[in-house]
Design goal:
It is globular and about 55 Å long. It is an alpha/beta fold. Strand 4 and strand 5 form a beta hairpin. The protein has one domain (about 5-240): Rossmann fold (3-Layer(aba) Sandwich). It has helices at about 45-55, 95-105, 110-125, 140-150, 170-185, 200-205, 220-225, 230-245, and strands at about 5-15, 20-30, 35-40, 60-65, 70, 80-85, 160, 190-195, 205-210, 215-220. The strands form two sheets. A six-stranded mixed β-sheet has the order 6-7-8-3-9-10, with helices on both faces. A four-stranded antiparallel β-sheet has the order 2-1-4-5, covered by helices on one side. The structure holds adenosine-5'-triphosphate and magnesium ion. Adenosine-5'-triphosphate (ATP) binds next to strand 2 and helix 1.
Length: about 250
C-alpha cells in the first residue's frame, strides 16, 4: 500500500530493439499534482506511462512511487491506475462487469460494489442504461468513459491518463475534467496526463513536460510554457497549435 504518492523518475530508458522509445527521462511529480505530458506521435509518452504503471520494465533508471521502487508495488493493487489510449476494456464483460471487476478482486460486498459503480458512473456522467452492454456495443466516447470509470472505482492514489479525452464531446469532457480536478484537490490524487491537446494541458496541468524522441525538452507551468520556450522544437510545437490551417468557407 502506497501512502505518499509523489512519482520520481530518474534516468529511465527503454528500447525496443533498435528503437529508443524513452531515452533517459527524469521527472519529479509531486503528490496531488496534475502533470501534463505533451509530445508528438511516437515521442515515447505511452511507453513512459506503461513503465510507471509497472506494465513494462525500464532497461535502465529508477521509478519511485512514494519513495518505493516501482517493482516493489504490486501491479493491480489499485494504487496506480492507468487509462489506456485504446481503452483496453475487457471485451467479453458488460460495462457493469468491467466497472465491478476491480472491486470484486478487492472482495467488496455486492452492495458496496453496486453503490461504488453507481457513484462513479454518476460522477463521470456514464448513463446506467449502458451498463448491460458489452464494449463492442458502445460508441468510442462511451468506451472511453468506461475506461476512465474503471480506473476511478478503486480510488487510486496515482492516476495515469493516456489521451483520456480524445473521443469525448465538450460537455462530457468538462464533467470528467471537473471530477479529476476535484479528486486531485480533495483526495490529493497525483495525475500524470498524456495529451496531444495543448488546450487541455494548459487548462488542467500544474506543470507540463514536452517530450520528443524519448527525451523531455522542457518542463514548465502552463503560463511559462506559453511565454517562453527553452528549445526551438518546443517553440515550433507550441506555435503549431495556432498555425493549424482553418478550413476555408
Ligand atoms: N512494443 C513495441 N515494439 C516496438 N516498438 C515500439 C513498441 N512500443 C512502442 N514502440 C515504438 O516506440 C516509440 C514510442 O512509442 P509510444 O507508443 O511510447 O509513443 P507515443 O508518444 O505514445 O505516441 P502517440 O502520441 O502516437 O500515442 C515509437 O517509435 C514506437 O513505434
Ligand atoms: Mg501513445
Amino acid at each position: 500500500m502506497v501512502f505518499v504518492t509523489d512519482v520520481v523518475i530518474q534516468n529511465v530508458g527503454k528500447s525496443f530493439k533498435e528503437v529508443v522509445a524513452v531515452d533517459s527521462v527524469s521527472i519529479d511529480v509531486k503528490q496531488g499534482e496534475l502533470y501534463g505530458i505533451l509530445g508528438q506521435t511516437g515521442a515515447g509518452k505511452t511507453t513512459l506511462l506503461r513503465m510507471i504503471a509497472g506494465l513494462d520494465k525500464p532497461d535502465r533508471g529508477v521509478i519511485l512511487i512514494g519513495g518505493v521502487p516501482r517493482e516493489k508495488i504490486r501491479v493491480g493493487s489499485g494504487d496506480v491506475q492507468i487509462v489506456f489510449q485504446d481503452f483496453a476494456l475487457w471485451p467479453h464483460m458488460t460495462v457493469s462487469q468491467n466497472l465491478s471487476f476491480p472491486l470484486k478482486q478487492r472482495k467488496l460486498s455486492g452492495k458496496e460494489i453496486m453503490d461504488r459503480v453507481g457513484e462513479v458512473s454518476s460522477k463521470i456522467g456514464l448513463p446506467t442504461h449502458l451498463h448491460s452492454r458489452t464494449p463492442s456495443q458502445l460508441s468510442d466516447g462511451q468506451r472511453q468513459m468506461v475506461a476512465i470509470g474503471r480506473a476511478l472505482v478503486v480510488n487510486p492514489k496515482v492516476l495515469l491518463l493516456d489521451e483520456p479525452f480524445s473521443h469525448l464531446d465538450p460537455i462530457t469532457k468538462l464533467k470528467i475534467r471537473d471530477e479529476l480536478i476535484r479528486m486531485q484537490h480533495s483526495d490529493r490524487l497525483t495525475i500524470i496526463m498524456v495529451t496531444h491537446q495543448l488546450s487541455d494541458a494548459m487548462a488542467l496541468a500544474d506543470r507540463i513536460a514536452v517530450m520528443l524522441d524519448g527525451r523531455i525538452l522542457q518542463v514548465s507551468t502552463p503560463d511559462d510554457l506559453n511565454r517562453e520556450q527553452s528549445d526551438p522544437y518546443v517553440s515550433a510545437y507550441i506555435r503549431s497549435y495556432s498555425l493549424l490551417p482553418k478550413r476555408k468557407a
